[in-house]
Design brief:
- The protein has about 240 residues and is of the alpha/beta class.
- The protein folds into two domains: about 90 residues, Beta Barrel (Elongation Factor Tu (Ef-tu), domain 3), CATH 2.40.30.10; about 130 residues, Rossmann fold, CATH 3.40.50.80.
- Helices cover about 20% and strands about 35% of the residues.
- Strands 4-3-6-1-2-5 form a six-stranded antiparallel sheet. Strands 9-8-7-10-11 form a five-stranded parallel sheet, sandwiched between helices.
- The radius of gyration is 18 Å and the shape is globular.
- The relative contact order is 0.15.
Length: about 240
Amino acid sequence: MSSVWRVAEVVDGMPENATARTIRLRVAGLMGHLAGQHIDVRLTADDGYSAIRSYSVSSASPDEHLDITVDELPDGEVSPYLVRDLAVGDQLEIRGPVGGWFVWRPDRVNAVQLIGGGSGVVPLMSMIRAHQASDNESAFRLLYSLKSPETSLYVEELHRLDQESAKLTVDYIYTRSTPEGWPAGPARLTSDTLLGRILPVEASPDVFVCGQTVFVETVADWLVTAGYSPESIKTERFGGTGGIR
């Protein structure tokens, strides 16, 4: 982990949906990163005011490149600029990659259950990509909880991997609206729904849960109550008051 601020150059920008964008950065001297890590981004205004925000890495690049996926907050200081204005060739100050606990390593042999709420899928996507790029054949399953299909990230890639890769299964929960032709109406996530869409206790999976605080805490409580080992559950949360709705 590096505590030094470094310069990262923007080499690409790819929209994910109406309010989210993946930004590809090149960081000279970077030698890859662990799946699940994040970076700190610092923006400094002309008057010297600076704002620092943390963003999960969504890629599994083994070289000088890494991707972050930023979801725009309507009242945000940093995210609207990153989503709407940042251009290829611009430079950012970054620190990291950071984190060694909420990470997946290819030498793990356990099955893996990923549970993401909204943009909480971002670090889980890094794990999925790292798993796909490795020789690891452990079962990977993703439960992705979304308000609506319009808020989904990585739509085409997740669909392709779910259909074509034997290494990943993807399940969706829509809480406000569903895709056209979806077999069920929208519904809030419940303990019963969760447990019916994830790897069973008997599989002894490593579980990674990421999303807003209430989502993460509620899901973790359900898992422990159902018999999943607390030691097997790793959580990552971000600000906001959104819950299981």
